[in-house]
Amino acid sequence: NTIGPLNPLDKIMVACFQTVTMRTAGFASVDYTQVHPVSLLIFVLTMFIGGGAGGTAGGLKVTTFALTLMLALKEVRQSKYVSFDHHTIPDPTVRKA
Hints:
Elements: H1 8-24, H2 37-49, H3 62-77, E1 82-84, E2 87-89, H4 91-96
Antiparallel strand pairs: 1-2
């Protein structure tokens, strides 16, 4: 009921615009009352995660979210350190996140 009638290119453009603007400007180009529940869940998750480290988006920053996931992965693997791309992330940085 929202972007279904659009052609594929317009669907992609509206989806990208909506993903960015909901985290920064709050501008709505679709009627949220007509959005599928799965889409609403994705909207909420992206707003919770927020934007990049230098951005003004609300929520967590993407880097903080990624570091938290890496910490969880460290615990599952029972590793001693949090590492990414063959680099160890210092414990104070992990604690700060």
